[in-house]
Amino acid sequence: MLASILESDIEAVAKAADKVDYFVIGSGTAGVTSAVELASAGFNVVIIEAGPFITANHVGTSPFRSQPEIVPKIHALVKYDTSWISEENFNSREATPLIKNNTAWSLVGGRTVFWGGCAPRFIPSDFADWPFSYEEFAPYYDEAERIIHVSGSAPNRPHFIKSDWQYAAMEKLRNSGFNAIHAPVSVDTESVANGHISHGFDSSVARLLRSGKLVPFGEKQGVSLLANTVVVKIEADGEKISKLHLLETQTKKRYELTPKNVILACGGIQSTRLALVSGLDKESDLVGKYVSDHLFVQGLMKLREPIGVPLYILLAATEQLPYQVQIQGAFDADWYSPYHSTVWLDHHQEGTNILFYCFGIGSVQKNNRVELLESGECPRGGKSEYCVVIDHSDEDRELIKTMMAGMPEVGKALGAEVVRMKENPPGSALHEIGGLRMGKDPSNSVTDPNGRFWRYQNLYCADSSTWRNQGAANPYLTITACSLRLARKIIADKHARLARTAKI
Ligand SMILES: Cc1cc2nc3c(=O)[nH]c(=O)nc-3n(C[C@H](O)[C@H](O)[C@H](O)COP(=O)(O)OP(=O)(O)OC[C@H]3O[C@@H](n4cnc5c(N)ncnc54)[C@H](O)[C@@H]3O)c2cc1C
Description:
CATH class of the domain at 2-83 and 105-150 and 201-291 and 432-503: Alpha Beta
Radius of gyration: 22 Å
Number of strands: 21
Strand content: 15-25%
CATH superfamily of the domain at 2-83 and 105-150 and 201-291 and 432-503: FAD/NAD(P)-binding domain
Mean pLDDT: 94
Low-confidence stretches: none
Bound molecules: flavin-adenine dinucleotide
CATH architecture of the domain at 2-83 and 105-150 and 201-291 and 432-503: 3-Layer(bba) Sandwich
Number of helices: 11
Largest sheet: 6 strands, antiparallel
Distance between the termini: 52 Å
CATH topology of the domain at 2-83 and 105-150 and 201-291 and 432-503: FAD/NAD(P)-binding domain
């Protein structure tokens, strides 16, 4: 019922597509951030989202947080299985069916409904191979931190966890040479006062609603939402995208639109998959290539006795240390499952388990790629099923060993013992990047430094598919800041065009 109020009618959009300035595909943080920004500058925007509307908030900010049996069922409504496999497995796929070893999510809000909230910045050296510097990007980080309320990033947004134990543990870790900081978390810590009511976890669907820009299509200028609608193909005619092919998943009806502009925000891998299905790789063999994910080691430490207070510390990466460690606790639970609301909000008074997650910078190799498969229907619609083909380099394997070897040192500094550690397979960090890499030179990149395709004037990408590599920090804040930057560049271009026309 609520969905029927928030969503627009696909028939109406199909009939008046010429009134839409930007079609944004995907409603996660990449999609909503640029959609709201463009609408705030006066554009008419339509977000097309494959998944259904299920909730207006992050599950950890909702009462579902206290229902450990219900939250995995909410995931089950909207997740589907994907394959991240080695070259060897890929080559033997006719003999051995591909394993489904990974997960993707499809719903209004995308993964922002479930994500863990850890929102650090990349460090300046992470931008060495990007077509812009940290210094140029820093103002977008500042704004993105404000938009998604990153704790600790401004005086009115204090740290989320405050306990003497946390301060003492950070001190001990620093004395042992680690760059220990309060974890920057995207949970609104601003005081509830003077009309400000805390927003909890950032979620793009809540943000879209709060922006006041969500409108029924055709009635007002703003952002309209089509849910349960898959873009199955993008069609190009010369240097322009000339058609979007849509499938409404409830009625199974198909639609064709002629868009003025299109922004891909389907999430890493999915934007690339859509580009491949649409044959946009015909003119560049870079499309689909240079895919990567964080190297991911997770583990469990045990404290000698309960500390009674929550703990959430980040060992931030440095130029010398190309990995980051999230340390969270203390819990009764002894392992992390991505299908619960959050792993760390509900610490246990008597808990002695501390969970840690190390994210290492993975190498970026051309042959790590998205492959369309000859048969099978993708749950996202369209003819082709896909898989990600990825192998670790020798350098990756060395870094994984270094991360594992470093953890007992971390445990020692905290007075805890590492009792379990596991290297998770590629893709499981859910921090995927690449496939549509940006650059300054059209001969070695798919999009320009802002995310506009070199070969198609009216096609852009707002998500991590454009990234050439990533730092050790989790990606959400950087995705949000990149999407904001793309929208600002589009708006600046429009103003420059208007100024030129006025002069003539
Ligand atoms: C459990 C969990 C915990 C996480 N914790 C963290 C964390 O602590 N910190 C962090 O930085 N990151 C974390 N992440 C990762 C983070 O959530 C993602 O990197 C980020 O949300 C991606 O945003 P996005 O907008 O690019 O993509 P998504 O959120 O994936 O949104 C893309 C949307 O596009 C839609 N779509 C795709 N294809 C089509 C199509 N063809 N037509 C129409 N719609 C389409 C999808 O249905 C989806 O809703 C976590 C992820 C999960 C699942």
